[in-house]
Amino acid sequence: TSLIHNGRELQRSAILLMVETDFPFHVFKTQNFEPTPIKLVVTAADTENRIVHELNAEPAALEYASAIGLLPEDLGPFSFASHPLVVKVGGDYYCRSIRNMNADGSLSFFCAIDEGLVFTVARPQDMLHSTENMLEHLDSKLGGIDLVVAFDCILRRLDAETHQIRHKMDELYRKYSVAGFHTYGEQYNAMHLNQTLTGIAFGQRPSRS
Fold this sequence. Notes:
The protein is an alpha+beta fold. The protein folds into two domains: 3-32 and 126-203, no CATH class; 34-124, no CATH class. 24% of the residues lie in helices and 40% in strands. The protein has five helices and 16 strands. Strands 4, 5, 6, 7, 8, 9, 10 and 11 form an eight-stranded antiparallel sheet that branches. Strands 3-16-12-13 form a four-stranded mixed sheet. A hairpin with a 2-residue loop joins β5 and β6 (58-59).
C-alpha cells in the first residue's frame, strides 16, 4: 500500500496522525460473528508468510472446508468472509481472516498466525443489525454524533454484497455521518484485527459558557 505524506509517496511505512479536539469522542470496534464449538488447531505453518499448511493435522483447506460444510473447491473470498476463524484473547474473540486458498491446499491469512494457535469457527450474525446497534449506542453515549472516522474491513463489504445489504449499509453510514475506507486489517488499541469496523466517533461541539 502506498502512502502520501507532504507530497512524497512512501512504501512499507506508516503515518501517525495526532489530533487534539474539544469534541467528545469514543474509540470503538464492532464485529458481526459469534463463536461455535468447532475448534481448529494450527499444526503446521509458515509463520513468516502467514501460511497455514495443516489444521488438526489435516490439509488446511480441506479441514476448514469440512468444518463449515463446504468442499475445498467451493472456497473463495465470499465463503471466507461468511465463515471467519476467531481466536480468544482476554475474554473476547478476535478474527483471523483467511486471505486465500493456495494451490497446495494451504491457507494464507491477513493476520499473524503461529503453530499451536487454536482457532474457533465462527458463525455470522446480522451485520446491519449489529452495526446499527453500535452506532445507536455511540450516538446516545456522545449526545449525538457529529462525525465517525471509520475503518471497515474489505471482508465485511464482501459479506454485505453476498447478503445483498450493501445499499442498506451505505444508508446507515450516511445517517450517522460515517466517513473512511475499506481496509485489509484494522487496529484497535494494541490489537491488529480483521473483519471488524473500527474507528473514532466524535460527538457534538461542546457549548461555550
